[in-house]
Write a structure and sequence with these properties.
alpha+beta; 11 strands; mRNA Triphosphatase Cet1, Chain A
Length: about 240
Amino acid sequence: MIDTLPPISQTEVEGMAGLQLRKDRKYVIGVEYFDQLCKDFPEGVFALNIDGRHDFRYESCYFDTPNLLAYRAAAHSRRRRFKVRFRHYLDTNDHMLEVKLRTARGQSQKIRIPVDESEADLRSLERRSFVDEATDSSIASGLEPVLTTQYRRSTLVDPTGASRLTIDREVTCMDVTGRSISLNGLVIESKTVGPPSRFDRWLWTHGVRPVRLSKYCTGLAALRPDLPSNKWHRTLQHYME
């Protein structure tokens, strides 16, 4: 159904709904159920289209300290927390180094820079300086790769509310030892700067409610049962396999 929606370019997406500072709501539903929901899309919705494609492969490598400072801050819902990741857009071969911060108002702020090399590391002074400046710390030298996620993403845009909806399928998480786990279902994420979007209300109307989910944290918790994970208990029980 997504390929029947009017197309929108990446440049237009950034112009209409860049959303580097936003409120995120996440949902998990079955593939078949999503196909049914798509028959009742809100009007005026566009689908990201690049070279005739609506579905794109992502790979993200997440960094953390040896004692998993970023993970534990999220697990205990600390107000000041961050994630650092190296993202590879496999179909366009673009690479970004990204820092996600949680603001005092509960919003997500994403700061990123393009990088030329495909190697996911923080060895260069430029990359470490970027991370330290974004996190207002000197943590970059102590970060190391912890978890890699892979999935396929489609993006919908509602220009009337400057909101986006991403649909991630085939989500797999792999740790540095090579162990992996998959998420059973589609991860749907609503991104908006203000109140719940038309996407959120559309999902709620069909009985779909938000869940606690972080690809990095939930994936790592599923692979490391020794870690504190009460925050994602329901998600781990119902969706990780």
